Amino acid sequence: MNGFARARKLRYVTVDILPLRSLLLALFLMCGIFAGYVVSGRLAGETGSELQRYFDGYLALAGERAGNVETAAQTVACFFRAPVLAFLFGFASIGVAMLPLLFAAQGFVLSFSLFSFAAAIGRESFLLLVALFAFRMLFVLPCTFVLGSAALEKSYALALLSVGGGKRTRPVVYGSPYWYRFAVCCVCLSVGSVLELWLVPLLLAA
């Protein structure tokens, strides 16, 4: 294989692994993370003491909150809301615009929360930050990205269908891979929710 053919194959594999829709969502996610970092830095002086009181109260009640139904519901909602929204936007042409905004908002919320708490409790409590945010970053972000990337493809096809007045030769089909991906992500998110509800109180107590 000559150099030109090898370069063409490399470009093909790269585009196939990292399609433009994934790069677009990653860009909006990074913009949200950066915006959260900037805003948290500007509000650190105003919210630092309040977050410290909240964190102290959370630590004091961590054991009681572990088996609380309300806490479990809030945790499940935090894990599922962004991935499920990303999945549902795949059924509407408006998802072309809403999915990037969803990723920007997701990045902003996680970044703002993380850096705000980091500024409030100090570097000596870094391990507590890992305990609080690790599971959500490990489970929520990848699942949202996987579902959002597939949903953006479907939403874009729906948008083209709407613009073309329904004259596309190939209709938008939600095959079994689309539903299988959603089911696998739901299982992963459920596992992440259980791990956070089980392990975070133990880590905070330790």
Measure the end-to-end span.
58 Å
> Quick one: biggest sheet?
none
Overall 3D geometry?
globular
Structural class: mainly alpha
Share of helical residues:
over 70%
Key phrases:
mainly alpha, single chain, 206 residues
Describe this structure in words.
Helices cover 85% and strands 0% of the residues. The protein has seven helices and no strands. The longest helix is centred in the first third of the chain and has 41 residues, at 20-60. It starts with a helix and ends with a helix. Residues 7-17 have low confidence and may be disordered.
Helix and strand arrangement:
Layout: H1 3-17, H2 20-60, H3 62-66, H4 69-88, H5 95-121, H6 126-163, H7 176-205
Short structural summary:
The chain has 206 residues and is mostly helical.
